């Protein structure tokens, strides 16, 4: 180290040591003079070796040499340290692989890259945009559910551990190259350059340590293939074949890499197969099959060459089942194939496929049965052999045109001889089910059905139903289950059977099976199942079949309620067939037998539907005599007068009713006031109705407010509506009226939020939000709110109307699901839905939906 130069210089004039650091009030060594050296031993001053006055040039030269040595040593350590540390990649080298992948970017992807945005005053601008676009939030109950932060943290830790484990360590175990090989096959075409280089070094080290292991050569060749280095891959696998000549897999990999449908390369592959067979011919079945495949792909029309290869292979490997199959495949005549199979089962007597092929190729007769007996003797526990025997029996009985039951009995007797193991479980039953499906696919349905009856218990069959793919077999399985006494009225199985019959685009055959089964079992079904089945029949316009089944059920039913429901269902079908006289006859019989209010109401509706108002009035008066306490008959009579354009009679009918027995009927008070043209008299009627129904006058107050609004008295309207809202805040009808007549958007938004909260997200409020968005031409939001309304109350028909309107407005092609859902649910409420009730009285709900929308 060099001596600092300032130590050999004279201090400037007036310099006081330590004064610059604030040293005052003490003495220094220079102030003491010679007394400062008096305590120093004399031995340190011999020859004045510590004095700076007599330093020679040799001393300076020695110090310079030693300082150079120190510098050299320090730089050498730095170089060694830098060599051991990994180099820090610069930014340009870091993204080389990504730049290379830019060549795969298409023109459309490049054009669709997002533009750079303006970041100046970004937060303030986003805040203003959010304030401008702020709307009513969509009600979603799932938002209220809390998030499990602890679970999220645990999942994040697990993911981090997996990521660290996947990157940890560079030493692989003996089988790790196989995992690497799988990753090469499953990963995408984009490969990290660093990972490839790392994998290449690992595999090369494996090959050097164990060159006789074929897996290392195969993995390295596939790695190069993945990197599109085909020449290097072929070179590596060729070296591997020279190194490991007695392994079939490495030869097959070599053939695969050289395999292209080109004559020279096919010739090379055939050469490779020939070389591989020299070393592995005695034990490799795959190489012989590959040789046959190459000979076939080469376009060799001469079958003799392929046959010679197969014969040579069988001479070396006579116990190979696959080679015998190939021999049968390339035999041109049936007789020669039978001879080959006869020889094959001598060498491979436990092969199910060879026995099956041998039996099926033989002509039907005693010889075939004898061969089957030998097969069963050789393979007594083979399901395939027993199923084949049943197929032969079914095939023998077909020309005789015997009844299905007799054929079933014979097949079941055959199957009973099969010794069933004691450990029956789902897996065992599933194997028999697969065998049944195979028989059904081969056009042996009776055998398939017998297998299910004999080997699959009911509890397992119920569990295995979803796994059956064959339509006919699945239909049989459902019916077989339902015919059992314990399952006939099982609603779960029936629902699954109905879903199965209705599924798919072409369900004609399944529905035909369903109709036949219903006709067979209708008398054994309980009331709910029978009504559900008949509704399915009616749904698919099977009027004749349904009428036949209903008549069969009526003959064996004495229960009054069920008979009435069946008769009403029958009348609906007859009306669709326009057999009105038959319907009148049935109604007259029902009224003569039992005079319940429901039958009267159905009959009056039917007469109104036919515009036979005089007859309807007569029946209505008769019903009021039989049931004087039913207000529905008063409403029906007023409705009939309205259809006859006799409004005064309708009003008088309502007023007389509320003045006598029906003073507590809110519906009749509303109808009587609505039909009063004089506003003062209408107010009086409303007030009387409110006084008579003080505890439940919300609807009366609402209707009175509506009448004031229609009359233009807005101040009175607001007073009445606010009064009703204070007393009956839970009624959604009052909120809907308030929302319809509110014009200011900010005020309406607050009212929507308050109404949803107070009414617990009632379907009417949700629908009113949807209508509001529709009026603002925000059809997507209107669709979402209408959908929420349908979910909140499925019976509200107005919600389905608006949902359908929004779907059509948005141009959505799939609106059939709405019609199907409406037909299934059959809505019965809603102001729009019931506005034209009698016109669509006997129409399908979907037809009514389309018309009203």
From TrEMBL:
- Which residue numbers delimit the PRP1 splicing factor N-terminal domain? 11-122
Locations listed in the record: Nucleus
Instruction: Give yes or no: UniProt keyword Calcium.
Output: no
Identify the InterPro entries for this entry. HAT, PRP1_N, Syf1-like, TPR-like_helical_dom_sf
This protein's GO CC annotations: catalytic step 2 spliceosome; U4/U6 x U5 tri-snRNP complex
Q: Which UniProt keywords apply?
A: Nucleus, Repeat
SUPFAM superfamilies, from UniProt?
Answer: TPR-like
One GO term (biological process): spliceosomal tri-snRNP complex assembly
Alphabetized PANTHER family for the sequence? PRE-MRNA SPLICING FACTOR, PRE-MRNA-PROCESSING FACTOR 6
Protein name (Swiss-Prot/TrEMBL):
PRP1 splicing factor N-terminal domain-containing protein
